[in-house]
Structures are given as structure tokens and as C-alpha cells.
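User: Show me an example of a complex going from sequences to C-alpha cells.

Assistant: Sure. Here are the input components:
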Amino acid sequence: MAATPEPLARPPGAAFREGFVEADGFRIRYMEGGRGAPLVHLHGAGGLRLAASHDLLSERFRVVAFEMPGFGQSPENTRTRTMPELASTMAQAAGKLGLDAFNLMGTSFGGKTALWLALQAPERVQALVLEAPAAIRQAGAQSPSGSPEEIARRLYAHPERLGAIPLPDPALRAKAQALVQRLRGPDRDPELEARLPGLTTPTLVLFGTLDQVIAPAMGRFYKALMPNCHLVFVYDAGHAIGTDRPEAFAEVAIDFLQRREAFVISRAPTVIHP
Amino acid sequence: MKISFFETARYCAPRPLPPEWPVPSGAYDPEAGADAYRGMIERLRYVEELGFDWVSVSEHHYSPRILTPSPIVSAAYLAAHLQRITIAVLGPIVPHSNPVRVAEELAMLDTLARGRLVVGLLRGTTNEAMTYDLNPDEARERTDEGMELILRAWAEPEPFGWQGRHFQYRAVSIWPRPLQQPHPPTYALGTSRESCEFAARHRLGCGVSYGPFEVMARATRYYREQCARHGWEPTPEQIIYRANMLVADTDQEAHARLAERPGTAPFAMREGIRDAIVKIESRNIAGQARTPNVGGALPTTFVGSPDTVVEQVRRCREVVGAGVLDISLHPPGSADLDPLMRALELFGRKVLPRLRDI
């Protein structure tokens, strides 16, 4: 297996700095790294876990990865009732950091938050990257649960390659469960889907070919519904694409964020010898 | 049992050829080449008339032995000239192809052939990798990824990009799509653990070739176990066994003719290359290392009178579990087509009708 990557020697995000911002009555933690145009990240139902892809993205962008209220070490969030409310909170948090316009990346559960945020404030979201978004799900889709190992097997195509990345913490997931269940909405959300055809934000939807949480075939619905959407499959990645194939994930995300639609035109040189 | 005729577009050299591989291209005779393809169609019209279920073509390079470097071009030509027979493209070699191109061409071919297409995808051997400068160490990975991309390109209704390890595309959306939906009957060919697992995971058939029944049965057993693990059971028709056959009026005659056949491949590689390939080549049967056959002639599995051959096929069905037998009746390396036509006639009259119920 010539191209099998080595497990990570140290946890990702080592160069990221921790910060807190007061917004919408919440004290919101975030991790920030890199310089350049801002890229806001909203995490999945398991909470904020920096991946190797964050490091790669931070080489080109100022990455601000929020921990949404109710996740991680933050107090349980019993106040937010709907996904649009959470999106509004996160838009305010970005505003408090001085981010008027930004690129927005959403992972799984956070992909739905990101879509709502873009619908509420399309003028502020320059481009969207949705990593295995959970806004449109196959019937009966379930979040990963169980032991750390069981969760890892659902999230990662290759949990054996995690290396220095700690296993998911079921306790943290459990704490946010009520919030996730309240906000995730139905597998097919008519209110959201009715609005997607009006969202002209350049959007990149990514699915791992081995995703065991959201069926990769869901990708086609975003592509069909959204007028400026590009769908990309990341081969041999599971639900957590940025951990399973960080280089492949970051390359296409960066190319898309920098060139938008023109990213379909290859600029990669193929000359072997001049 | 379904019976497939393995067609090689045999080239009859007007002059002796250098016995080495790659065979120097300058030794090729264009008229003899044209005759080879003309002869192929005449022969296959007879094959179709005899009632064979399939004709198969494969991908091989730089040699007159099998004059079909592009199996898809061969198959398109067959589709235009033959009426009923199923055309089995048992190439293309995936790791040195553009998978999207392969998906497009096979979809086009399936449509041109009005759904008479069967597809086998494979890694190919190290000498084939050499022809297109493919690093053999990467061949397995490129095959798995390429096959997955081909299946995705056939199925996906929206334009999609592909971030692979070895292949990258930003927007794939093939036209035409296959006539057979969701796609033509497809096989992952080979005995390796990886190929059996891929086939099982994607509900494809599996194809093995040339080895003894018991050895090939290790691969087909492993394939069926993997299918069960993925919650399905393949039909007999999803297992192909390809082999050489030497059928004659009597067992004695068949064995006498077998003894006359050379034990080495007709166009051998230079020793240094052959040794390097033996060192590099990594093959396995259901996970157990397999010694590569480099430079030796391929074995002839079915040998004997019609009665004997029918019994051998029956054993093959029982032991390997194959529901499709892909046979080569041509003496390996021989440019003489008469023995092939005699074997074909004998097989068609005395053997083929008795294989139906096996």
C-alpha cells in the first residue's frame, strides 16, 4: 500500500490559540489559527475536534473554529430551540470577532447550521464548504453512539490511523445529545429544502465514499437543489473527511475557496521534465 | 453453465518473429494484421452459430499473441458484426487507464451493443504495468480506486468531483449512461484477497483463471464468504473461470498433442526483466502468496476427448463454483488457425450441447 498515510505523530491544531467571545448571551469558545481571509468553522454533533485539515487550511486562511454553545466544556444549552436560532447566535459570534464577511465551513450537524447562517445572512457568507453535511439525511440516519471505539468506527474510515488524535469522548457527546436531537430536524427538512434553490452562495459539498453516518448519495440533493453547488467525493474517507484524508480535503477546499467555480479548471502542472 | 469463447484476434505472421517481449513493432505486417481482424469476425460468426453464450476479449500489449490492446475497440467492432452473442470485455486494465474514460466507453459500448455487454475490471500483471510505465507497487491501489470511480460515474445522476489518491476530477457527468441499469453485469477479475473483497463489497461478480480447480476454489470460496459478510449471495453466473482447453477425438490424441506444446511463453522477456518482475510482483490467492508465472506457458486445464472434457467441466462447476466457463481453444503461441477451427467444430458439436445442464 504505497500511499497509506502514517498515523499523526502529534495532535492537530497545536498552533491554534484558544479564545472566548461573548455573543447572544453565551460565552463561546473558539480556536484560531493562521492568517489570511477568514474561514469560520462550525463543528459536528460530537463537538469541536481540530483535525489535520484545520492545520492545512490555516496555512492559507485565518481559521476560526467555534465551539457552539452547549458543546464541549460549555454549560448545557437549554435555551436554543431551533437550528436557525443557533445559526443566528453563531453569526453574532463571528460579528463580535470583527468578521463581517467570511468563508464558512460546516461539518455534519454544523453543515446544517452553516446553511441556515448563509440563508439568514447571504451577504456575509462569501462561500460555503460543507463537510459531510447532515442537513439532508437518508431515512432513519443515526448519530454515532456507544463506546469511544464504536463511535470512532462510525466516524472514521481508518480509525487505526488516528495516532495521536484522541478517541471521541462519549460523555461530551451525551451532554449535547438533547440539544442535537432538538435542532437536527427531520431527515428531510421541507422548510430548509424549500429555501435552498434561492441560496446562490458558492457551495462545495464533500462526502467521503465510506461515510457510515450520512449516505454519500445524499450529496446529489444539495447539487440538485442549490444553484451554485459543487459536489466532490473524497475517496477512502469516512464521515470525518478532514481526519481521514486531510490533504485531499484541504486541497479541494482551498482551491474552491480561492477560485470558486473556476476550481473546475485544473491548474496543476503535469510536465515531467522541461 | 454459460460458455464463453476467449477471442484473441490471432495474428498469423508471414515471417518468423523475434521470440522476445516486447515484440519489436517493426516486425508487424499491416496486411497480416488486417487479416487477423477479418479472420476474427469470420470465426466469431461461427462461434455465434454454434451457440456460445459469450465471446470475451482482453487487454494485452506489445505482442502479436493477443492482438487486442484495446478490448473496448475490439468489443465495439464485435458488437457491430455479431447479432446475438453477449460481448464480455474482460480487460480493461484499470490502473493504467483513465477510469472516467473507461466508464464512458463502456457505457457507450453497452448502448451500441443494445445491452449485450458484460464487463470485467482488473489490475493486470506486472508485465502489463510495464507497458504504460505504471509502478507495479501502486497498481492494486489504483485498481481499487479506479473501479470505484467507474461504478460511481455510471451511477451518479449529478456532476461530481473526485478527490482520490491517484485520480482527481472536479466535475464528472458521463453521457451516455449504460443501457443496462444500473450498469452492465460487472466482475472484479482476479484471485487476490483485495479483488474478492472489492467484488463482495460492491456486489460484483468475480473471475479467476488458469489455475487448478482446488487452488482457484480457494479464491471463489473466499469471495463467497465475503459476499455473505456483506449480506448477499452471488449467483453461479457471477463466477467466471477462464482456462485453456485441448479437446480431441480421443484422450490419447489430446495428450499426445499437449506433449507437443512448448513449455515456455512464445515471446519471452529478457532474463533481467523477468527476474526483476518475479522479485517485484506481489500476487495472492485469497490472501496466500501466489508465485507469479513469468515466462512459462499457461497451463491447459481441460484436456481430453469430449466425454472427458465434459466430466472435467462438471468438476470445475462443483469445485470452483463457476457458472461461466471462458475457454481458449487455441494452441498457445501457434499461428496456425486450422487446429483452432477443428477444435471449435469438435467442441461445438460434441461438448457444448452437453454443458448446458451442468
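The lines above are the inputs; the final block is the predicted structure for all two components together. The mean pLDDT of chain B is 94.
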